[in-house]
Amino acid sequence: MGLIAAGCGEQKLASGDLVTASRAVSVDVGRALALPPPGSLAVTGVTQRSYDNAVSQVVSLATRGRTPGENAIYVAFFTAADLPDSTGVEGNLLKEPGMDDFALGREMDERLPGVAMSPSAVFVQNRYGPFGYAFGRGSTGEACIYAWQRIASGDSLFRPRSGMISARLRVCDPTGTEASLLRLAYDYAFNASLRRPGWNPVGDAPPPAPELGKAGAPIYPVLQPSAAAERQTRPVSRPRPARAPRVERNSAPTPEPLPDKPLEGYPTVPPPPAP
């Protein structure tokens, strides 16, 4: 009986005996590191991976259309530790995603297969600093955007002492335009931070304007005129007076009608003989 009991005890699994093939775990959407603007795309799931020097997430967004892939925000929070030399994973260290044309083109080929993306040469900047983006259209004509941003609080590009944030935004929308999709890159926000001493890649908030709260420095709001105000300020169109008929100066005079009886003082010419 003792051997049987011992054998049954060895078959019982502990919580730490299960080893998964992936280090990715699903977390609640409220723990997303980055969020899209309010009222835009809904967050449908968050997949998180932890490393010795970083935490990365794929924040899945509501997706519609026929372009392969899913709308998502790819974000990683890095500590101030030295980063490996190239992209990828080395041991349990996450390497920083590249910002060169080759690395970004490879990302777009993977996350936007079959979509011809054109990088924009226009300088754009959101609340966290400058970012880049590319725009294209899928085979069915739906608009697609891929944006990228690196935030390191002005520290050294190769060794950010205050940590670093890497973010990518991938969105395709059959009813979207370049302007509407670009607004997502302007207004997305980070939703967390790392509890590490000195970790502050975004930097401190700018100070308020020096004239704020002081006398003699009024600040006026920019108000949009209402429809009633527009109707009151809009000039009233008045009917134009009818124009007199135009007289053509160079037109030929109207010929006078021929008289139907002989004129006085002139001989009468007989008609030609009948044939």
List the helices and strands and how they pair.
Layout: H1 2-10, E1 25-27, E2 34-35, E3 43-50, E4 54-61, E5 72-78, E6 88-90, E7 93-95, H2 101-111, E8 116-119, E9 124-126, E10 129-137, E11 143-151, E12 164-173, H3 178-187, E13 189-190, H4 227-233
Antiparallel strand pairs: 1-3, 2-13, 3-4, 4-5, 5-12, 6-7, 8-10, 9-10, 10-11, 11-12
Compact overview of the structure:
By secondary structure, this protein is an alpha+beta fold.
Give the key terms.
275 residues, alpha+beta, nine-stranded antiparallel β-sheet, two-stranded antiparallel ribbon, 4 helices
Structure description:
The chain is an alpha+beta fold. The protein has a domain at 22-190. It has helices spanning 2-10, 101-111, 178-187, 227-233; strands at 25-27, 34-35, 43-50, 54-61, 72-78, 88-90, 93-95, 116-119, 124-126, 129-137, 143-151, 164-173, 189-190. The strands form three sheets. Strands 1, 3, 4, 5, 8, 9, 10, 11 and 12 form a nine-stranded antiparallel β-sheet that branches. Strands 2-13 form a two-stranded antiparallel sheet.
Q: Return the structural class.
A: alpha+beta
Shape: elongated
Average pLDDT score? 81
Tell me the strand percentage band.
Answer: 25-35%
Terminal CA distance? 154 Å
**What's the helical proportion of residues?**
10-25%
- Tally of strands: 13
Helical segment count: 4
Q: Main sheet? A: 9 strands, antiparallel
Supply Rg: 39 Å
The H-and-E topology, N to C, reads as: HEEEEEEEHEEEEEHEH
- Unreliable segments (pLDDT under 50, ≥5 consecutive)? none
